[in-house]
Write a structure and sequence with these properties.
By secondary structure, the chain is mostly beta strands. The protein has 1 helix and 15 strands. The strands form 4 sheets. The protein has a 4-stranded antiparallel sheet with strand order 1-2-3-4, with no helix packed on it. It has a 4-stranded antiparallel sheet with strand order 5-6-7-8, with no helix packed on it. It starts with 8 loop residues before the first strand and ends with a strand.
């Protein structure tokens, strides 16, 4: 267990409590901090710096960079795969197989869509986003099949069947 003196926002938490991913409170106030964040272990040690999400099983972490989304294995922090996707939010299915990024592909023409990665089949597809907010909050079901998008700017919930 650990205690922090600065309160960050919580992005995700592994089911066993071994990892927690956070974003700085300044992210809400200053958009230039939007790709900042940290992953902590249960002792409060910083494991990875950068904004992203931990899978519920605690075995994978998706890191959002300016033009790339990187998938790491945990605890060894080995890069599994890099994708040319620029995102504003990311979630993983509980086993880390499915990764959902709100953003755009950087290697092809793309609009602000929902990008789904099946890491087991090494397949990527886009789902048209019917919301207009460019940085909604997203939640994924345990199996990665259904996505809930909350657009506070539009005061709406959107529900997607991804596969």
């Amino acid at each position: 267990m650990f205690e922090k003196t600065q309160c960050d926002g919580i992005v995700s938490l592994s089911e066993d409590g071994n990892y927690i991913s956070t974003y700085p409170h300044e992210d809400v106030i200053h958009p230039e901090f939007s790709h900042h964040g940290k992953v902590y272990d249960k002792n409060g040690n910083v494991v990875i710096e950068g904004f992203g999400s931990v899978s519920a099983d605690g075995k994978r972490f998706a890191l959002l960079l300016d033009t790339t989304t990187i998938i790491y294995s945990l605890p060894d922090k080995i890069v599994i795969k890099e994708y040319p996707i620029q995102g504003t939010d990311v979630v993983l299915s509980s086993d880390g197989r499915f990764i959902v990024v709100v953003g755009t592909k950087t290697d092809t023409a793309s609009t602000n869509n929902i990008i789904v990665i099946d890491s087991q089949e090494d397949r990527i597809w886009e789902t048209y986003a019917s919301y207009t907010n460019t940085s909604p909050h997203i939640f994924l079901t345990k199996d990665g099949k259904y996505l809930l998008v909350i657009s506070y700017q539009e005061n709406k919930l959107f529900y997607y069947n991804l596969y």
